[in-house]
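Ligand-bound model needed. zinc ion.
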Amino acid sequence: MRSLLLVALAAAWLGGYALACAVWPFAACGRCDGTGKRRSPSGKAFRACPRCKGTARRLRTGRRFWLWTRGRAAR
Ligand SMILES: [Zn+2]
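Prediction:
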């Protein structure tokens, strides 16, 4: 019954991940390394990162799923 154990482990991991995404819904934006800025080549000028719109954070995939399962009203 090794497959059953694997399923149980996967379910436990998913549950922990879902809980973590509920408590810590954001991760640092990978495009701007969590700065929220996109530097110009000179390094002095910058604009808001287009991916995170200058917030420097992104919603984690698990959080998206969390919101999706709860529907639009819970947002
Ligand atoms: Zn960004």
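Residues 29, 31-32, 36, 49, 51-52, 56 surround zinc ion (CB under 6 Å).
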